[in-house]
Sequence to fold (263 residues):
Amino acid sequence: MCKYTRLRQICLVAHDIGKVVDDLCDVFAIEVCHRDPNVAHFGLVNALMPVGTSFIEVVSPKVPGSSTAAGRYLGRRGGDGGYMVINDCDDVGVYRDRAAGLGIRAVEDRSYVGKADLLQLHPRDTGGAILEFDHHVGGESLDASYHWAGSEWQRHIKTTRVRAIEAITLQSSEPSRLAHRWGAILAREVRENDHAWEVPLDNARLRFVGTMDTRGDGISSIDIAVADRPSIIAAASLRGLAINEDGHAVNICGVRFRLRNAF
Fold:
């Protein structure tokens, strides 16, 4: 059993990474802390931005088309969207063993000596999205090492508008089944709440709801704790982004960001 399992990073995939990063930074008043040259190995470019002590990552294929997993995902879901749910924990081996016991394949299982261990599970076996577990050496505290974000990510934290990622919602034609699949992987209780199924993590929630559009199973929304919703809505309006009628959600990169008041 892991001492901690925390939602740390949500990965979005975009055709135009420059526009999406500009949208996120301008609307939420956040900034890029790191661009990882190592993702070129997967045919990608990326940018990582802290939201409190969690992160939003955007990836994009270097060459348009279906030669990368991200490119195929863009085609399968009909455009930009949520791609990966990334958690950090104190022992990746716990999830490696649990996944194997459930018959779930790994698509990436790698150790970066002295830095981090990484386990990515196959989305065809998990359903919904790529589910990843990491352990970062020296990363027990949320404000300590997080190697994917570079060595100085803490100085890039901006909290004038946003404070934390609180939840990720995945839509599915079988939300209860998907929730219980992820609950089994995480060894967490599945709770039914407000017409959704929820799996609690130490610092956030995973929510599972019925299909809300024609894009199929996948990440549909992200809940963010915000400190200045009017400024977020004003910035989104200036950039021509879709805003829901009550002004409590903004659409960026094919994902609805639900704005929750921070306390």
Q: What stands out?
A: Residues 5-156 form a domain with the 2,3-Dihydroxybiphenyl 1,2-Dioxygenase; domain 1 fold (CATH 3.10.180.10).
